[in-house]
Amino acid sequence: MFEFIDVKFRNVLEVPKLFIEKGKITTIVGASGSGKTTFLKLLNKMISPTQGRILFMGTDLSQIDSIAHRRRVSLLSQNPVIFEGNIRDNLTIGLKFQGKPLPSDDLLIDILERVRLQKQLNSSADTLSGGEKQRLALGRVLLLNPDVYLLDEPCSALDEVTEELIIEMMADLVKKNGKTLVLVTHSKAIAKHYSDTIIEVIDGKCSGEVHL
Ligand SMILES: Nc1ncnc2c1ncn2[C@@H]1O[C@H](COP(=O)(O)OP(=O)(O)OP(=O)(O)O)[C@@H](O)[C@H]1O
Hints:
This protein is α/β, with parallel strands linked by helices. The chain is 36% helix and 26% strand. It has helices at 36-43, 66-72, 87-97, 105-114, 130-144, 160-177, 188-194; strands spanning 2-9, 13-20, 25-30, 51-56, 59-60, 73-76, 148-152, 180-184, 197-202, 205-210.
């Protein structure tokens, strides 16, 4: 689905050759500051290579409209923004930006269940804990229904049990709905258990698949 050819981004990240497969789970591991977030940002065209090329379904990303691309490839950042307002507003804000019709409350409640957030749609979002905010933001991305999910440590504020449930839910989505997941995680256990491919970034260099 993605192919990296001699890619560099400034002196931050170097990816000589790499494939990311459609319909699979690819996990990115590496030390803090090694370049994992930069890798995800290249995939959804938030930044562009300063050298080399990235192909998406065979087309150079430089030839693809950035906004159209981000509708197909959604990035959930490490510290997602939670907007003023209630849970419903926060779930639907992405759809509103995209000019898409708003879903029924039943669908929104189903999304909250999938991200294991036991809150009412009308309750305020700013009093949520860090981990609850993470799950709310994941719910927002699920509603956008992209082809590719780029999740940057989506469970960093969650306990192990909830983390497992959330990753399990995402893995199910990949299997049943043919989605593609690229996941940054610090958990080697999660990486080992769920990944089809594990990629390690070491000091800004990403040389392909590793076996943990
Ligand atoms: N646009 C940029 N220009 C220059 N340097 C950058 C840019 N973006 C990030 N960096 C630097 O590149 C390095 C890698 O950053 P990145 O956020 O990709 O790391 P990371 O592996 O995701 O870290 P963490 O696990 O702590 O989130 C950092 O030292 C960061 O300061």
